[in-house]
Structures are given as C-alpha cells and as structure tokens.
Design brief:
434 Repressor (Amino-terminal Domain); 7 helices; mainly alpha
Length: 111
C-alpha cells in the first residue's frame, strides 16, 4: 500500500471516529485491535491487515470498500438504511428535512 493511500484511509477512519464520538481506545476495543494501531492508521503510518480492515469497517459502520477507496457502495446504503429503519416517525421526518436542506445547500454550491 502506498503512503498516500494509507493517509487517505487514515483520514476516513479519523473522520468517522470523531463523527461517532469515539476515543481511539473505544474504537480499538470495538475493532479488536490496539490504541497504537488506531493512532498509526489515522496518521497513515500503518499497513493494514485484512483482519484490521474488516474490524475497523465493522466498528465504524462502513463497508470495507468505503474504508479502502472512499467510494460508497450498496453495502454503505444498506448500513445507513438499517440505522434509519430504527427511527420513530417523528425522527424520520426530522432527518428527511435535514437531508433535503443539505441537498438544497449542495445544489446552491454552499457545501
């Protein structure tokens, strides 16, 4: 794996970890790895084993494809759909409003 490739993976891990409000220790526990591994991955300084890739993807709720390439797949859509299906009707409508507002902002070039 090239250094730039590892840095991009690290950025995705860090971004998602922060979005989930997890510490490196918490993510390490969920991914069945060490805090040092998480730190090195986030800094693009660690080659990832298959076990680490799968563990991180599962712990972060993303596909291995997204973790490795940054490209969303049907698996990512299904993971999100599973989360959304657990919302109450009120929560769903609130999320729907947020999504439509976000899309409008994107189309206006604000995001």
């Amino acid at each position: 794996m090239g250094e730039g490739f590892l840095v991009e993976i690290g950025k995705r891990v860090l971004e998602k970890r922060k979005m989930l409000r997890l510490s490196q220790e918490e993510l390490a526990e969920k991914a069945d790895t060490s805090k040092q591994t998480i730190s090195m991955v986030e800094h693009g300084k660690r080659e990832l084993s298959t076990r680490t890739i799968v563990g991180l993807a599962k712990a972060l709720g993303m596909s291995t494809d997204y973790l490795l390439t940054g490209q969303c797949t049907n698996e990512d859509v299904l993971l999100l759909q599973q989360k959304v299906s657990g919302l109450t009707a009120r929560q769903y409508r609130y999320l729907e409003t947020l999504i439509w507002n976000f899309i409008d902002m994107c189309e206006e070039g604000a995001v």
